[in-house]
Amino acid sequence: MVTQKKSTGKKDPVLVVVQLSGGNDFLNTVIPFTNGIYYDVRNYVGHKEGESLPFTDDLAFHPKAEAFREIYKEGKMAIVQGIGYENSSRSHFRAMDIWHTCEPNTVATEGWLAKVIRELDPNSSNPLTAVSFGKGLPRALAAPGVIATSVDNLDNYGLMTSIEDNTQRMANLDVFSRMYTPAEEWMGGRHESGVVMNYLANTGSGVLQGADMLKDVPNKYKSSVEYADNSIAKALRDVVRVHTAGLGTRVFYTQHGGYDHHAQEMPAHDRLMGELSQGIKDFLTDLEEHDASEEIVILVFSEFGRRMKDNGSGTDHGSGGGAFIIGNRVNGGLYSEYPSIEPSEWLNGEDLKHTFDYRGVYGTLLEQHLGLDPNEIVLGNFEQLNPFK
After folding, report:
1. How would you classify residue 124: left for phi > 0, otherwise alpha for psi between -120 and 50, otherwise beta?
2. Shortest CA distance to 275 belongs to which of 300, 245, 249?
3. Nearest Cα to 71, choosing from 278, 365, 337?
4. Which of 62, 182, 228, 368 could crosslink 201 through cysteines, CB 3.0-4.6 Å?
5. At 190, is the pLDDT very low, low, confident or very high (cuts 50, 70, 90)?
6. Separation of alpha carbons 338 and 353, rounded Å
7. In 10 A of CB 86, how many CB atoms?
8. Which band of pLDDT confidence, cut at 50, 70 and 90, is reported for residue 130?
9. Burial class (CB in 10 A: 0-12, 13-18, 19+), 92
10. CA torsion angle 176 178 182 185 (round to 10)
11. Confidence grade of residue 303 (pLDDT, cut at 50, 70, 90)
12. DSSP per-residue string spanning 26-95
């Protein structure tokens, strides 16, 4: 049984996860700009010397990630270098499944954050303990009996809000309510419901309750921060809106897609790096404006890195990526070791080796930030970092 430690802060700690879907090119995000091998093997996608944004004597951020460099200089960003696991999968679906469940060898049925939800809210009393922004519910938040709320667009959130005729809308909502009422109630008291029906009943009730709780959130939010018009900026703004509404959400999940750069990497990755870094910078500013930044820590991750050599237009699936832990209580700096880019050290003759297990990053966040025993959640005891003040 996982036990939750007593919180010592005035506000409950909150985790915000940003998933970079597709396999972010870590070598072009945190660039070893003084190493000639980088330029030798990346004739097409390598950023020319003088373009990147140095933040140490040897490393530089992507040219469009100036906001990241500002966050790093403020001491609010821990860069986890070489994050990964043994025998890294190059399949998007399997790789994400491994990251989402902490199980690299078999197919698991419970997401790591779903187990966190179960510990934080064992009776499922709050359907907003975890909120995901984007289409569909990430595997990390899914497990039998665990309720997590998924929101595509907070401004239009709620069932069937596009139906203008209010009478028809209420009638349809009543149908949804009947569908999701526990079977023994709407079957005249007969106990004929199966496991699936009970699961749908619990989940559906949570969906309806979550929709009702969120419908007034946008009207309560005011800010001087002007977010850009892109998906990750909008999602992060929605995180602030829900968090500052005081609805008890402890885990937020967001996704930024488009990182599978087999071709045309330069324009696409440039755009994504600008969106991501500025979106997180605006998010931190917004939280501080609302006196809501001290309790939040952000994890930015991707399912794998890219290969050392470009393919003439982009980069193919690889390993040895990187992650970012960001927040006011973070002790910024470099953590773990940057994978060697010497050709003799390449994994399978073409890839970066991982230097730190991703489950150790999860364990760090669980134990040192959320106050949870991580072993049963990450399925083992893994080396942790010390990225907090």
Report:
1. left
2. 300
3. 278
4. 182
5. very low
6. 9
7. 10
8. very high
9. middle
10. 170
11. very high
12. GGGTEE-TT-HHHHHH-TTTPPPTTTSEESSSS-EE-TT-HHHHHHHHTT-EEEEEEEE-TT----HHHH
Please determine, looking at this structure, whether the domain spanning 14-155+222-378 carries the CATH number 3.40.720.
yes
Cα separation, 55 vs 59, in Å, equals 6
Other Cβ atoms closer than 10 A to 43 = 10
SS3 category, 158:
coil
The helix (H) or strand (E) run that includes residue 138 is none
Residue 277 reports pLDDT greater than 60: yes
Q: How far apart are CA 170 and CA 165, in angstroms?
A: 9
Give the separation between CA 222 and CA 333, rounded to whole angstroms: 33
The total of other beta-carbon atoms located within 10 Å of residue 52's CB is 22
Contact between 151 and 133 (Cβ < 8 Å): yes
pTM: 0.88
Task: Indicate if the pLDDT at residue 137 is higher than 90.
Answer: no
Ordered by start, the domain boundaries in the chain are 14-155+222-378, 158-214
Lookup result for tokens 């996982």: 2
φ, ψ dihedrals at 317, nearest 5°: -55, 140
- Nearest-angstrom CA–CA distance, 239 and 223: 13
- Residue pair 356/336 in contact by the 8 Å Cβ criterion: yes
Place of tokens 């909502």: 173
Element (H, E) at 198: helix 195-214
Q: How far apart are CA 120 and CA 200, in angstroms?
A: 22
